[in-house]
Amino acid sequence: MHVSRRTVIQGTGVAALAALGAAQSTGTASAAAPSPKKTSAKATGLELDSTAWSYDAANDVYYQLGIAYVTNPATTDYENLSIYVPGAYLTATPNSDGTTYTATVNRKGTVGKYSAGTAPIAIPVNTPGYSAQSPATSYNFNAVSAYLAAGLVYVWPGLRGTSSSTDTLTGDAPWGVTDLKAAVRYLRYNRGILPGSTDSVFLFGMSGGGAQDTVAGSSGDSSLYLPYLRSIGAAMEDADGRSLSDAVNGVMAWCPITNLAEANLSYEWNMGQFASTATRAAGTWTSAYSGDLAGAYATYVNRLGLRDEQGKRLQLTRSSSGTYLAGSYYEHLLSVITTSLNNFLADTTFPYTYTPPSGPPGPPSAAAASTTFETAADYIAYLNSSSTWVDYDSGTGKATVLSLEGFVTSQKNASKPVGAFDGYARGQTENGVFGTGLDAPLHFAPLTRDVIAKNETAYAAYSDWDSSYGASAYASDFAEADSIGNDVAWRANAYNPMYYLSPALGGYRRSQVAPHWRIRTGIAQGDTGNTTEINLALALRNYGIGSVDFATVWAQGHTQAERTGSATANFIAWVESIVTK
After folding, report:
1. Which pLDDT belongs to residue 355?
2. What CA dihedral angle connects 165, 171, 172 and 177, to 10 degrees?
3. Which residues lie below 8 Å from residue 481, measured CB to CB, with a gap of 6+?
4. What is d(CA 29, CA 100) in angstroms, rounded to the nearest whole number?
5. Which of 125, 153, 304, 442 is a Cys-bridge partner for 477, taking CB atoms 3.0 to 4.6 Å apart?
């Protein structure tokens, strides 16, 4: 994410959260039923209050707002959640106050293919730029209607993030994911009195939200989070003393800005090496830095030992031109781009009118105004207008992408400076994510530090170099401890899905990884490299996750990218395909 911090989420699923706090509730319940059974569990302060339901009679929805999901919150402004339940899943009686209801789970209640016991629980993670997710303060049916109509239970937790930091409170990593895990644990603590299946918890989010649900989905029950969870009074055991889990069943991630440990390197290899302006202009130390980062990416990705679906080891090798633009990993990347283009050609009816995205970044070759292409061949000719990088067989209607440079130059220019995630002057959004509170950004990426340390003497010969950019700054930042006593390296591992998924890294097989994943990304976005989602999908499959639905979407940027249909409808259908299979 760029230092400006993207705050607009496109699409109907995640963006709808903004509307949830905008309207007041109406309606009364008409169903009558016995009072709920008393639980024998000793009180811990985390019991759901079954006498505190509100009811929207017009839409048959029960809901509760402002439920504290931890007993020792760092901030009550964020660490509370809201629950929205289809009316069929509860049986209720009005309370004497005339506005609230006492309700028990109606085990016979059904909506569509689900019952009160099988209904999936959907949890949005709307944290662009790793910002906070504010909890709901009022009720708005329209924002949750699609999910409830499909029979899902919708749970919206407030989460700390970079935007919630103050002089006395930090929302930086790993607190956002910690809060998310605590919310999941709260649901499991209350599984006996709450509709919905806590075995079917699905997270969904985009950009920084997609990143944080990816981290949560890969780090289920990781010991790295235990001291953080205990510090805020999260539910660690159920009423019978059995350990609770924060692992989830599925993750929907659109354009996740993740895998931050490698992100500086992959960005320069994937895109930066084809740019020659601004921080990549000849004669600058950052241009040399870009090339060194790109070269270091080859060493890193080769160490990961990623394999394709046929079991072939994916590696980069030296090339006659460019930086490591050869080898099985390079060919795999081209095959993903080729698939994306062919999907677009199959999905598109020509004549086709392309309208550039309203906000950056879009394909750099896009015309300023809408352009109509009469045939697929016309569109391919347009792509090849500066250089031939796509081969097209008009007989089969299939395209083949021939070079990464051609694709990037046409469709995916670098929109961030060198040091795109861990900035040499700590100016990127992610430096704040690993900071220690308001206006206290820190370096966090050892792979980046290693490149600086190896080449610092050469960089110092450039007139635009400053000694504050040196490796010593990284060393001092890495040593900074948070309130739990963990240093930056610890926190960076906690926020790196590859730490849990790759056998080359220390967290491998030490967490409960979600068994179902759906990953979508706009292929033209300049926010991160193609490598981010590709490496994530490969690592998940290599880990043994059999349910990985991954696609890049042609001609779309940083958005809730979908080949066809709406993001919300496609997410709901994906969940159904898993739960009812």
Report:
1. 80
2. -160
3. 487
4. 9
5. 442
**In the numeric block, which tokens belong to residue 299?**
């060493």
DSSP annotation of 464: T
How many residues are present in the chain? Answer: 581
Contacts for 262 with CB less than 8 Å, ≥ 6 apart: 297, 300, 301, 447, 498, 531, 535
DSSP annotation string for 424-437: TTS-SHHHHHTSSS
Q: Where are the beta strands (DSSP E) in 135-239?
A: 153-157, 201-206
Characterize 416-441 residue by residue with b for buried, 16 or more Cβ atoms within 10 angstroms of its Cβ, and e for exposed. bbbbbbbbbebebbbbbbbbbbbeeb
**Residues forming beta bridges with residue 155, ordered by sequence position:** 83
Kindly report the three-state secondary structure assignment for every residue of 54-99.
Answer: EEECCCCEEEEEEEECCCCCCCCCCCEEEEEEEHHHEEEEECCCCC
Q: How many Cβ atoms are within 10 Å of 558's Cβ, its own excluded?
A: 30
> CA-to-CA distance for 109 and 90, rounded, in angstroms?
7
Answer for the pair 444, 172: CB distance below 8 angstroms, yes or no.
Answer: no
Torsion of CA 467, 492, 551, 12, to 10 degrees: -100
Residue 196, H or E segment: none
Residue pair 578/250 in contact (Cβ under 8 Å)? The answer is: yes
**pLDDT score recorded for residue 358:** 54
> Is the Cβ–Cβ distance between 202 and 251 less than 8 Å?
yes
Tokens of 4: 């400006």
| Chain centroid offset of residue 159 CA | 14
* pLDDT the model gives residue 30: 32
Q: Which helix (H) or strand (E) holds 518?
A: strand 516-522
Q: SS3 of 472, please?
A: helix
Write out residues in the chain with pLDDT < 50, as ranges: 1-43, 359-362
The rounded Cα 294 to chain-centroid distance in angstroms is 24
pTM of the complete model: 0.92
User: What φ, ψ does residue 261 adopt, rounded to 5°?
Assistant: -60, -35
**SS3 label, residue 178:** helix
Which neighbouring-strand residues pair with 154?
Answer: 84, 122
Give the C-alpha distances (Å, rounded to integers) separating 251 from 116, 219, 256, 518, 536.
Answer: 22, 12, 11, 6, 12
